[in-house]
Design a protein that fits this description.
single chain; 451 residues; alpha+beta; Uridine Diphospho-n-acetylenolpyruvylglucosamine Reductase, domain 3; Vanillyl-alcohol Oxidase, Chain A, domain 3; eight-stranded antiparallel beta sheet; five-stranded antiparallel beta sheet; 23% strand; binds flavin-adenine dinucleotide
Length: 451
């Protein structure tokens, strides 16, 4: 009779080992999720090239769709793919700079958190930054990520040159003189033209900023919005919803001495979450609490290097929709949103965000051809955002808004095309560079109407 041990050794163990290998092969690549957890996928392969040559070989030798991920901070479905997911995080760091022109060249996978200090060490500073510094340069420029400031454009508008690995296995160096059309398409391209490996940014001399934060009545701030926007380098506000107050943030250049920097206040996050959970049962009490607590905040002033002041930390996970409306419509659009939340009795406490951005001439930039006011709507990640966003989104459409490419919205090619004067030019360039649609996932298919 065969012993249990011999049976295991002769048949069962090799069989089990074989099964394990097969299942490992089938799920070789770890699953992927975005920052908020709403988007996910199970790619067949994940690859992080150590050089441009490795990346080009991968593109030529692989089959199926290729999507590239930065730091996964987009809320929309730009990244997910069942096939090949690439990250260029090993193509990172400051590569060279030009002290005279104040330009600096970074690996495209560099996070903005690793840009500020190295730039300061060579006497340079970014013109502006987004709310946080976790994004990669490639990821941020691909969605024309922005900060706030009437005279300040999105990250994409400060690109001097970029390198793009194409579906045909070429590495194109692209700037305004080499191929102006391709450059204006590639500076905000949703990862649909190829894979960015290197980006040269136009910077300015390193500088110091002073931030002033204070609470005020939202309607009063809106009355002054134009004046604040003209007067300050950066003006932004966070209107509380189901309340009457907002937090105002003004930032200007200074030579004042540095102050200790603020940490993040996790208690504030917890209070908001409690108010979301239980406040809907007592809306009048919730309004009173928000008005009293936020309205009673002390004015705060901070001085730091530009990159320290501009980037914040966001610990609380959420989902977000954001539209860019023409700058002059910003105040009315915000009034409409606040009135709708009140009239529809929407059970929400997450503050809105209200900012201004300068126009540029990039084909798919959300700021193409017009100065914009950006208004963002958020909901905690553990709640279904859809009923809330569905009530607000038509208001953005009424004001001619363009949705943020990296944030949630419901538009497809039919509605997007009329919002972008150079839509067809972009699609022609995409078709020329990638006729086999290697860089197109189902979400991009619907955005671009690729059938
Ligand atoms: C907490 C938080 C705060 C935010 N604040 C702001 C803000 O202040 N302003 C603002 O405008 N947005 C903001 N966003 C949105 C965010 O900046 C954008 O969605 C940005 O695109 C994310 O960059 P990422 O590096 O995470 O790229 P991902 O989200 O990973 O990718 C974004 C796009 O870039 C493409 N991509 C990535 N790498 C490459 C590459 N090497 N080559 C070609 N394509 C590539 C991807 O395919 C995808 O299409 C915020 C998001 C979060 C979660």
């Amino acid at each position: 009779m065969i012993s249990r041990r011999r049976f295991m050794q002769s048949t069962a163990l090799p069989f089990l080992a074989g099964c394990m290998k097969l299942s490992q092969a089938a799920s070789a690549a770890p699953a992927w999720k975005n920052w908020s957890g709403w988007q996910s996928c199970q790619p067949q392969r994940r690859f992080s090239p150590q050089s441009e040559a490795q990346l080009l070989s991968f593109i030529s030798e692989s089959s199926g769709t290729i999507r590239t991920v930065g730091s996964g901070h987009s809320f929309s479905g730009l990244v997910p793919t069942d096939d090949n997911l690439i990250s260029v995080h090993q193509l990172a760091g400051l590569r060279r700079h030009n002290a005279e022109n104040l330009t600096a060249t970074f690996g495209a996978g560099t996070r903005f958190a690793d840009v500020g200090k190295p730039l300061q060490d060579i006497g340079q500073g970014l013109f502006n930054m987004a709310d946080i510094d976790r994004q990669t340069i490639a990821g941020a420029i691909s969605t024309s990520t922005h900060g706030t400031g009437r005279t300040l454009g999105s990250y994409s508008s400060y690109i001097e040159e970029l390198k793009l690995a194409t579906a045909k296995g070429e590495l194109l160096t692209c700037n305004r003189t080499s191929d102006e059309q391709l450059f204006r398409a590639a500076c905000a391209s949703l990862g649909a033209l190829g894979i960015l490996t290197e980006v040269t940014l136009q910077n300015r001399p390193a500088y110091r900023l002073k931030e002033t934060i204070y609470p005020d009545q939202t309607m009063a701030v809106l009355e002054q919005a134009e004046e604040l926007r003209q007067k300050h380098r950066h003006f932004e506000m966070f209107p509380m919803v189901n309340a009457d107050v907002a937090i105002v943030q003004l930032i200007d250049e200074t030579t004042e001495p540095l102050t200790p920097l603020a940490g993040t206040d996790e208690e504030d996050d917890e209070t908001l979450q409690m108010l979301q959970k239980y406040g809907g049962m007592f809306p009048a009490l919730r309004r009173w609490i928000l008005n009293t607590v936020v309205g009673g905040m002390d004015k705060a002033e901070l001085v730091g290097e530009s990159w320290q002041i501009l980037a914040n930390t966001r610990n609380m996970r959420f989902n977000e929709m954001e539209y860019q409306v023409p700058a002059e419509h910003g105040p009315d659009c915000l009034r409409d949103i606040l009135a709708t939340i009140r009239a529809e009795n929407i059970d929400i406490v997450f503050p809105l965000e209200y900012r201004y951005i300068k126009a540029d001439d990039l084909m798919l930039s959300m700021f193409a051809g017009r100065d914009a006011c950006s208004i963002s709507v958020h909901h905690f990640a553990e709640y279904d955002y859809r009923p809330y966003f569905a009530l607000i989104e038509p208001i953005f459409h009424k004001y001619g808004g363009r949705p943020h490419w990296g944030k949630l919205h419901t538009l497809t090619a039919k509605q997007l095309a009329p919002l972008y004067p150079e839509w067809d030019n972009f699609l022609e360039i995409r078709e020329r560079l990638d006729p086999d649609r290697r860089f197109i996932n189902p979400y991009l298919q619907s955005l671009f109407g690729l059938g």
